[in-house]
């Protein structure tokens, strides 16, 4: 069952993820994405982002930090920060689509994920949903057993 496999491979509690992101000033986000993007793609059998794009994202974040500390280049640093935010949002929506497709194809569950949360909480929300997949499958199985009985 892909839902269980995905949860066990990603294996990150959302609260820990948020706290680590705060403590590392966002660096953990890129590390998590680099590590888990390939795991998610492999498990869901769907391409989300090439690893090179995630390396570009890490570079954008690094350069935005450098440029933001220089008063003359602060605007450029801000632009790079916005670009990195857009990368996260695009990744989150692609991951959302892949998760929903897997749930529909493998478990016959129309798994709805909130687009508002996907936009604003992007990788945190995707991680939260990955952690909830197993429970959604179990809930669906219980409901289908009640309907069959």
Automatic annotation (TrEMBL):
The chain crosses the membrane at residues 15-34, 49-67, 73-93. The keyword Membrane applies. Residues 15-100 form the DUF4234 domain. Keywords: Membrane, Transmembrane, Transmembrane helix. The keyword Aminoacyl-tRNA synthetase does not apply. This is DUF4234 domain-containing protein. It comes from Vibrio rotiferianus.
